[in-house]
Amino acid sequence: MIKNYPQSITGGPTIVTTVVPVGPQPTHMICPYCHAEIDTATKTEPGLIAYISGVVIALLGCWLGCCLIPCCVDECMDVHHNCPNCKAYLGRYRR
């Protein structure tokens, strides 16, 4: 038994993706998940720049704790944005 399936499906729902530009500071926006007007909650974590800087410092001979300094500097941190209302992950700002 041979079944014929359509080559393309038309008339289906359209998926719209909203890209929200986020920066190092909290962003005022409408959450795409819970549709509440919010200021994003931010959390910083060491990024790739912090790890590379730490390795370079360690290779230069400062490995007795000095190589951990970039993990404490805000300019080396990535900023993660979440919705304070529904806790949805909204994006990351990379340094």
UniProtKB/TrEMBL annotation:
Domain of life: Eukaryota
Keywords noted in UniProt: Membrane, Metal-binding, Transmembrane, Transmembrane helix, Zinc
GO-annotated cellular components: late endosome membrane; lysosomal membrane
Localization per record: Endosome membrane; Late endosome membrane; Lysosome membrane
Domain LITAF: 11-95
UniProt membrane topology term: Peripheral membrane protein
InterPro entries on file: LITAF, LITAF_fam
Major site of localization recorded for this protein: membrane
Keyword hit for Transmembrane helix: yes
Pfam families named in the record: zf-LITAF-like
Membrane spanning stretches: 48-73
Keyword Ribosomal protein: no
GO MF entry, a single one: zinc ion binding
Family that this chain belongs to: Belongs to the CDIP1/LITAF family.
Protein name, UniProt field: LITAF domain-containing protein
